[in-house]
Amino acid sequence: MSNTGVRRRSKANRDKAFFDYSMLFIVIFLVCFGLVMLYSVSSYESVLHFGDSAYYFKKQAQSTLFGFVMMFVVMMLDYHIWQKLAIPAYVVSAVLILLVLTPLGYEVNGARRWLNVGISLQPAEVAKVGMIIFFAGHVCKMGKSIQTLKGVVKTLLLGVPISFMVLTITDNLSTAIIIFGIIFMMVFVATPNYKEYFIIGGGVVGIAAIFVMLVKKGVLTSEQSYRFGRIEAWLNPEAYAGTTGFQTLQALYALGSGEIFGKGLGQSMQKLGFVPEAQNDMVFSIICEELGLFGAAVVLMMFLMLIWRFLVVANNAEDMYGALLVVGVMAHISLQVILNVAVVTNLIPNTGITLPFISYGGSAVVFLLIEIGLVFSVARRIRLRNSTE
């Protein structure tokens, strides 16, 4: 009788599911920290425009709560169900972006990127999740053919239409870059040969360098495209302090004035109308001003820990499909953090990229938490074995 009990306990231990409490803690920390910083950063503008210091905070908190509900729903589902929905995910992403051109689409701050479907929805955020689901399934379906140059090129070309639509229809270069970057990283992880990627990466850097040189020499100017104007402001922000370089310069002032430990939570001066849309793209600059280099380092360390947990889950995933889902989420969040910090510190031209979980944006936080739910769903399929057996 006792032997039967031992065998049952042994089997139970063998079948014990893995749950990543560390990752859950990190996500909760980033989301809660984001809400605190959002209230601090946006309270002045909220009172000025809406008469309520918590206007942005309340809207973000509602989206966050809904996002957590969706995260737990997705987490409880078997992630293999999404493999069957790979093609619909691609089609839905494309259709939602096209709907921006219809009366359902509307503008915010001069950019037509949102849909009014009873709730405010940004199709580009849906497309990020859709591309992760589609390309995880597509790469698995291709099998060994993905390891050839022809297979890599064909797969990357499948990502071009969605990226191009995001760029042209919603006029959102940064999101188009991130979407294609997600696809690129997923294909990179799935293939053993790296030479082709260094060639592609080198080519992209070379083309970007040529554009920068042409702007610097005055061949390409802001009169031809506002994006060339952003490069001009990036190269010499002081010369454009009253126009395209204003936001960058004010963000740099915020970074420098925070010093090591910052001015204190809520004590920022730059958020009082000096940094435009501080609750969005430039929230990291206010973090540096109020919490200093120390606070900024803590935030970046939490993101690094989150990426590490993604790596742990991906390395131990039950199958290739699960691993690629996690890699896609990891690529999305890491790219967005790197590019946002690079913009704020003026390492790259201003491209309007938000900081995950912290910047204001209802659609963004909901779909980020859905992506985290996908990672948890993969993690739950990992089985822990009893090392004493």
Descriptive account of the structure:
The protein has helices at residues 2-14, 21-50, 55-76, 86-98, 123-142, 149-169, 173-190, 195-216, 226-235, 246-258, 283-315, 320-344, 362-380, and strands at 16-17, 105-108, 111-116, 120-121, 383-384. It is mainly α and 389 residues long. It is globular, with a radius of gyration of 22 Å. Mean pLDDT is 87; it is low at 6-13.
Radius of gyration: 22 Å
β-strand percent reads under 5%
Kindly state the number of beta strands.
5
- Uncertain regions spanning at least 5 consecutive residues: 6-13
Count of spatially separate domains: 2
Q: In short, what is this structure?
A:
This protein is mainly α and 389 residues long. It has helices at residues 2-14, 21-50, 55-76, 86-98, 123-142, 149-169, 173-190, 195-216, 226-235, 246-258, 283-315, 320-344, 362-380; strands at 16-17, 105-108, 111-116, 120-121, 383-384. A hairpin with a 2-residue loop joins β2 (105-108) and β3 (111-116).
Short key terms for the protein model shown above:
389 residues; mainly alpha; 2 domains; 67% helix; globular
